[in-house]
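> forwarded from #structure-qc
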């Protein structure tokens, strides 16, 4: 048995399904990472992969970026966590406030799931209402309110929610309303009908790899503002990726609250909720003992190692020309993939913005979750598995692009895509 096979055998005994729960490579394609640098990963057997998973998005600079490594090494000798105010975390909060239009104040959490969870809790305290509205197909992490109608096989009539996981209390199903993404008339009608019960509307402004239709985000913003319902942008994927100021800068629509994670902490466990003092004040301990007070705490919140990694990442992103380069690389890969699908006569859409997109095997235009249900699931599974076989790693439903991907990486990847799509078309 090779070292890698032995490790995989140990993992299969230790972890349910043999995996960490977030990513599956496919049966027989599992591997164990030895190290990662730039746009590449190596497994324990020494095989190299071009990485478009990027740790599920955080590694926008690529792996082991020298500026991030240096900042982290410097901090390690000063202590790794304090649960107390520290200079790096204050600086990171300042940088969020500088970068993000809706951000006046910030609270840090350890994961994106916690960030959306606390954004919804603080919105409930502010509004004095319980229900939330989310969009079908939108993903906001794995807490009980978020795992509703993310990927229902047989969607219900709007606004009824379908839980995506076992173990979610039945009582919560009625607390979440579901609206269709990119269908402003229906979303508006649900908001108008239920505004008096709604604590918040939460949305991925760019939902998975579906681009908002012109006027959709503005319409949702107008409808929520009309009724005083806080609008929450889940910017965990889009933050610092679509633009330095996130989707709210990129699409020009400013929410009340926003959740950030992934790129913000450059590959360390840290995320954030940001918003106006008028809402964020509910997190102030001066309100303790009143129903206004929102309890938000966590052992690793404000972690200085994650903060310096985030600060180093953001400093690199502020260099002139960074986003132009990211969009150029992503557009080359996206257009090349679309051209290959056309060349092989496949019914496919390459959907999304240049920094993160994917191929969806359908001849329907992908404007919402239900359009994704028309996709050939077997083909996407084959595509993903063939990528691994050919030394390319991607997320199950995303291709994340980094600043470390070179033209040579893109050329090599496009050759792989072409070969795989030729096989799928046969
Ligand atoms: C849009 C979005 N929101 C929330 C989350 C949850 O973040 P985390 O995995 O850090 O809990 C994710 C994770 O992929 C995400 O893509």
């Amino acid at each position: 048995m090779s070292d890698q096979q032995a490790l995989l055998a140990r993992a299969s005994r230790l972890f349910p399904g043999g995996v960490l729960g977030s990513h599956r490579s496919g049966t027989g394609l599992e591997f164990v990472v030895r190290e990662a640098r730039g746009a590449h990963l190596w497994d324990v057997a020494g095989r190299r992969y071009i990485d478009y998973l990027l740790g599920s998005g955080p590694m926008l600079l690529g792996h082991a970026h020298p500026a991030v490594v240096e900042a982290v090494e410097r901090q390690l000798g000063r202590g790794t966590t304090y649960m107390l105010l520290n200079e790096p975390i204050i600086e990171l909060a300042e940088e969020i406030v500088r970068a993000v239009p809706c951000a006046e104040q910030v609270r840090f959490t350890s994961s994106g799931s916690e960030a959306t969870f606390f954004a919804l809790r603080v919105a409930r305290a502010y509004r004095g209402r319980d229900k939330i509205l989310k969009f079908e197909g939108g993903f906001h992490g794995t807490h009980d309110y978020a795992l509703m109608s993310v990927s229902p096989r047989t969607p219900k009539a709007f606004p009824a929610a379908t839980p995506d996981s076992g173990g979610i209390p039945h009582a919560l199903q009625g607390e979440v309303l579901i609206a269709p993404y990119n269908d402003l008339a229906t979303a508006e009608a649900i908001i108008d009908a239920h505004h008096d019960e709604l604590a918040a509307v939460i949305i991925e402004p760019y939902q998975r790899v579906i681009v908002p239709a012109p006027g959709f985000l503005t319409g949702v913003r107008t409808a929520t503002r009309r009724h005083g319902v806080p609008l929450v942008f889940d910017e965990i994927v889009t933050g610092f990726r679509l633009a330095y100021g996130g989707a709210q800068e990129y699409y020009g629509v400013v929410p009340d609250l926003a959740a950030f994670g992934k790129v913000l902490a450059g590959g360390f466990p840290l995320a954030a909720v940001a918003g106006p003092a008028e809402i964020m004040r509910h997190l102030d301990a001066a309100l303790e003992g009143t129903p206004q007070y929102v309890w938000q705490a966590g052992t690793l919140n404000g972690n200085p190692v994650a903060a310096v990694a985030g600060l180093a990442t953001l400093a690199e992103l502020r260099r002139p020309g960074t986003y132009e380069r990211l969009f150029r690389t992503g557009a080359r890969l996206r257009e090349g993939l679309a051209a290959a699908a056309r060349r092989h006569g496949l019914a496919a859409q390459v959907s999304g913005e240049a920094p993160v997109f994917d191929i969806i095997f359908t001849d329907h235009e992908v404007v919402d979750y239900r359009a994704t249900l028309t996709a050939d699931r077997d083909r996407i599974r084959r595509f993903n598995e063939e990528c691994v076989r050919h030394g390319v790693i991607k997320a199950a439903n995303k291709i994340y692009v980094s600043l470390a991907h070179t033209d040579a990486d893109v050329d090599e990847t496009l050759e792989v895509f072409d070969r795989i799509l030729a096989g799928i078309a046969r």
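QC bot note: The radius of gyration is 21 Å. The chain is about 40% helix and 15% strand.
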